[in-house]
Design goal:
alpha/beta, Rossmann fold, 2 domains, 28% strand, disordered C terminus
Length: 256
């Protein structure tokens, strides 16, 4: 009788995992966060995630370079309205900006047109993405975009070198968000801004996998942890938040 009970429990567990899009990795033991770590790993997690949690959020799997054509899909113009986004950034002609998770340069090249006297650093951790970006850069004779191969923990940007860092549908995939954002904060000039564009988790009707959406509440919590202060959120895009943050020290000086 006990054998049948065990079999039923196992069967129900498998059905539960399938229905709720969870997966089990026996090589990862569920454990509480190490006091010296910002992260928590769990054996049972979403199949769309990496089993690693940061401030209560599971980190999503990275979209690999094999899917780079998705970044250049024609429907993106209407789905995401990239021109509306770059105009909302209110860039000055001599601004130095960083496109973090630049991919094929979809946003980098659009920003480059608005900063003819400045520069765009196109940062990505996948060399294949940067190879494609450099090809398109040469084909279109764009001279003010510079590619940077970052790491999972470091954007490889100089301290206080940029006016604005833009992350479009990228932050939720950072394997080490605390370390990566700390590097981005260091790279911002005193009056610099960090802008995150993420699909709205608050809207369940947006047809994007749950781990590839973020709520304003969660983003604000994670940015506060690295010393950024929320400035405003612009709801100009059909499905995404445009969330703008500044350094705390700059904001406090500004208010004095």
């Amino acid at each position: 009788m006990k054998k049948y009970a065990v079999a039923i429990i196992i069967a129900l567990s498998l059905v539960f995992l399938a229905v709720f899009n969870f997966t089990y990795n026996p090589s990862v033991l569920a454990k509480e966060s190490n006091p010296n770590s910002y992260y928590q790993e769990k054996a049972i997690h979403s199949r769309d995630g990496i089993g690693k949690f940061y401030l209560g959020r599971e980190i999503a799997q990275v979209m690999g370079h094999q899917a780079m054509l998705w970044l250049e899909r024609p429907s993106r113009e209407t789905e995401e309205q990239p021109q509306t986004l770059v105009e909302a950034l209110e860039l000055k002609s001599d601004d130095v900006v960083a496109d973090i998770g630049a991919g094929t340069g979809y946003m980098s090249f659009r920003m480059a047109n608005l900063v003819p006297e400045g520069k765009v650093f196109a940062v990505d951790i996948q060399p294949e993405m940067l190879d494609a970006l450099n090809f398109l850069k040469q084909e279109n004779k764009i001279t003010n975009v510079e590619t940077i191969l970052g790491t999972a923990t470091n954007p490889q940007l100089s301290d206080e070198s940029i006016d604005l860092a833009l992350m479009v549908d990228a932050y939720h995939e950072f394997e080490y968000p605390r370390e990566m954002m700390s590097g981005i904060v260091r790279s911002l000039k005193p009056a610099g801004k960090a802008v995150l564009v993420e699909y709205r988790q608050e809207n369940p009707l947006i047809p994007i996998k749950p781990l590839h959406k973020m709520s304003q509440k969660q983003v604000k919590k994670e940015m506060k942890a690295v010393g950024l202060t929320w400035q405003e959120t612009k709801e100009l895009l059909p499905q995404q938040h445009i969330m703008i943050f500044t350094k705390k020290e700059f904001r406090s000086q500004e208010l004095q």
